[in-house]
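Comment thread on ticket #2218

A.B. wrote:
> Attaching the input chain for the structure job we discussed in standup.
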Amino acid sequence: MNTKHSIRHGLIACMAATAIWMPTHEVQAQKAVRKALAESPTAYALFNADGEPMSWPEFVSQASRADVVFFGELHDDPIMHWLQAQLVRDLLDLDLHPVLGAEMLEADDQLVVNEFVDGTIQEDKFKAAANLWPNHFTDYHPLLELARDHGLTFVATNIPRRYASHVYKHGLDGLSSLSEEAQSYLPALPIPFDITLPGYDAMLSMGGGHGGETLPMAQAVKDATMAHWIGQHLGDGAPFVHMNGAYHSQNKEGIVWYLKQNHPDLNILTIHGHLQADVLVPDSAALTMGDVILITNENMTRTH
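C.D. wrote:
> Ran it. Output below, let me know if you need it in another format.
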């Protein structure tokens, strides 16, 4: 059986098993549904790092046993955002209360995030006070609402962007010139930096030499800050589920590398988002990027 057929078989296997005990008309209806699914466009598929198909329940089971789950997304992909929220719902259904966190919210907005989650302020006040991405309300606000409705902690993990810009201009050493209050949003200084990590080294090429090492340094200070705040809020018996751009956690570099400097024994699960025209046959290059590869249809409507 080829990969496409094995995935489709997995999607409909449960219906086939239950059909044995159904009346004839219900069996026929299930067959019609299976045929329709097999002939319809596929929005996404999951694979493990060996390229083997993975079911959604298998992924949720792995996530439930992890200390930290990095959900590496493409920021404008609606399927990935839907699945982030679905993961949280499914963990709640397992009677787990994950800690949530996101690159898309900055550490100096933590008080505002807390006030929204605990019901102190409503959406209009939150919108006015927080430094939000343009696609916040379509893509990330549902996660905050889940945190509010279920009493979950939500951590704004990213560095305030003005300090990332400061690093781009002055390098990591420039952080020492910031005030004590500004440094309270950062990990302890000095922040280590390894330019030989492939992700940072590649940024030098992507930048065409412009900015020199301060370009990957600006990326690294984001990674280090997110790792710092994740480390400060590790869950007790439930995973920390962190939403971030796929580049920040691919190949277990970026945030993962920094987190493991201080927490080497954590059980970390990475899911890497990837776009393809045919979601049922994973690109071999994508398989190296995460423990779980989430392939979504590249023709899916973008959110912004």
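A.B. wrote:
> Thanks. Noting for the ticket: The chain has two domains: 1-40, 44-297.
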